[in-house]
Amino acid sequence: MTSFIRPVKGLVSVISGGGSGLGRGVVEQLHRAGGKVAIFDLPTSKGAEVAKTLGDRGFFAPVDVRNEEQVKTAYENVVKLFGRVDVNVNCAGIAFAERPFGIAKKDLKPIDNFKTTIEVNLLGTYNMLRYAIKHIHDNEFDDMKQRGVIINTASIAAFEGQAGQAAYAASKGGIVSMTLPLARDYANDGIRFMCIAPGIFDTPLLSTLPAKVKAFLNALVPNPNRMGNPEEFGALAQHIIENRYLNGEVIRIDGALRMPP
Question: Is the pTM of this model over 0.70?
Answer without folding.
Answer: yes
